[in-house]
């Protein structure tokens, strides 16, 4: 249960937390390999295996999240390809109500994401979630992925916050570990970031399925 009286700042991941990760998973596992296969006249399975190998080698680094890096490496216009399947971009359940609730409680809400600015701007255009956020920070602006301790020190310099009175919600266990090491007191993990994938068994951090669980906690804490 969250004690909202002990929380001033809420840091929120985007993909897999506020937005359904199915869009990104489909893009990297299906759409991009298909377009790469067409451009290079190879089979889909060959292209998919290549993309998986390349992404696995960079997982957790800033390049892993950089659309420009992948455009240069694969010789494709990846940001343009992102827009080809924008109909799959969707909010996770209860996201809009949760963001409105944060505003009503006068909590400072920051989006902290590893998303590349091109992809980030596109998703904000489609969803409009930026209207509920006080600050939007991309790790590309800070030069470090959220998996790195350097990200959290840089974030503190740019947008000062009290780690002991901060809630951070993310779906990435490595990112949550880095936030815990930095000293953020209140951490939550998303159990099912991709609506088309199974619910995960999370044991390292407190976890929720959807944001209505936090809204219920808020209501009960006021009782």
From TrEMBL:
Its EC number is 3.1.3.5. InterPro entries: HAD-like_hydrolase_sf (IPR050155), HAD-like_sf (IPR036412), HAD-SF_hydro_IA (IPR006439), HAD_sf (IPR023214). GO terms for molecular function: 5'-nucleotidase activity. It is an enzyme of class 3 (hydrolase). Keywords: Hydrolase. The keyword Hydrolase applies. The keyword Plastid does not apply. Gene3D superfamilies: HAD superfamily/HAD-like. NCBIfam families: HAD-SF-IA-v3, PRK14988.1. This is GMP/IMP nucleotidase.
């Amino acid at each position: 249960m969250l004690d909202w009286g002990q929380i001033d700042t809420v840091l929120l991941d985007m993909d897999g937390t506020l937005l359904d990760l199915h869009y990104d998973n489909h893009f990297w596992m299906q759409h991009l390999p298909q377009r790469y296969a067409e451009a290079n006249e190879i089979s889909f399975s060959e292209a998919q295996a290549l993309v998986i190998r390349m992404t696995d080698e960079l997982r957790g680094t800033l390049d892993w999240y950089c659309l420009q890096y992948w455009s240069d490496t694969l010789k494709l216009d990846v940001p343009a390809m992102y827009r080809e399947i924008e109909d799959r971009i969707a909010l996770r359940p209860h996201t809009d109500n949760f963001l409105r609730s944060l505003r009503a409680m006068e909590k400072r809400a920051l989006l902290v994401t590893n998303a590349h600015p091109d992809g980030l701007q596109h998703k904000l255009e489609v969803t409009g979630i930026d209207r509920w956020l006080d600050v939007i920070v991309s790790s590309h602006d800070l030069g470090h992925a959220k998996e790195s301790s350097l990200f959290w020190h840089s974030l503190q310099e740019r947008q000062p916050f009290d780690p002991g009175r901060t809630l951070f919600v993310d779906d990435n266990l490595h990112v949550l570990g880095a936030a815990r090491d930095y000293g953020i007191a209140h951490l939550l993990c998303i159990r099912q970031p991709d609506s088309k994938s199974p619910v995960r068994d999370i044991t390292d951090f407190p976890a929720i399925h959807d944001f209505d669980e936090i809204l219920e906690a808020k209501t009960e804490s006021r009782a």
